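Training component of the fellowship. As part of building independent skills, the fellow (R.M.) carried out the full modelling exercise for a liganded target. The chosen ligand was iron/sulfur cluster. The inputs are recorded below so that the supervisory panel can assess the work.
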Amino acid sequence: MNQFEYTRPTKQKAALEQKAKSPATKFIAGGTNLIDLMKHGVENPQKLVDINRLPLHKIEQTKTGLRIGALVANSTVAEDKQVLEKFPLLSQALVSGASAQLRHMATVGGNIMQRTRCYYFYDTALPCNKREPGSGCGALEGINRIHAIFGFSDKCIAVHPSDMCVALAALDAKVLVTGPNGDRSISFLDFHRLPGDQPEKDTNLGPDELILAVDIPASPFTKNVHYLKVRERASYAFALVSVAAALDIENNTIRNARLAMGGVAHKPWRLLGAEKALIGKQVSEEVFQQAAAVAMQGAKAFEHNEYKLKLAPNSIVQALKNAAGMA
Ligand code: SF4
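Fellow's submitted model of the complex:
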């Protein structure tokens, strides 16, 4: 690991000023991904600005819903009474992610900013456009079992690894950020990027900006929800495919629906077409299968991940059945 400077400001302004001074400066909070990346030589910051002393540790009710500070631990969010009552989908997603030890360390902001687990990204001896733009994509013609089936480009086929972000995308959350030009709120669907020609950019967060909080609007999705995660082992592992499903059901009719997938694209993959296909319909497995078929339009597999073309729709149907209490 390279040598680096380390500071622990207590004021937001000081943290932003230190970050603005050099592009080789990184914010660090829980460090559960960044330290790994530094050990592998993927990230080599000259300076770490530890933001743990900033006042971003609260979960608070707002006029429109719930605000979760960027430094709240994943385990704290998952166990929070308000989250369990109002956003159980988020709690389920968090509990399915990582190990208990990691959830205690990892923060909400860090979870949003975590980077792909593509093997080629972590191996500095292999080509990877995300790590080293222009070097090529090792996964494209290599081992691509865990890779994307939606939204990829010829530069990168990686997937976003977070579970929490899939639930937040389904719940229409917003990311509150601050920077030299003040505060701004970014819709969760616009926060992460597709790889396009610049796979090195995971998000639309500015280089000098800091995540302050996540805002989740109040919603009727408090009962019929399910986060389904399919992974290679029951303990700590990233999703091959995951589905966040939320239904608002009255008299067996679906009044509203939210669906998002993880493990299938470079960003949490919201299934807006499938949601439309569900609204106004009676709850049934057939309707869920029709929605899954809509969700899979445009999916394309690579040599080793064709199984996802079956796994993904089956997971959507199962998640919806679980959410509706049919399973
Ligand atoms: Fe790198 Fe993306 Fe290709 Fe993986 S899929 S090797 S992260 S460019």
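The panel noted the following from the submitted structure. The chain has a mean pLDDT of 96. The two ends are 49 Å apart (CA to CA).
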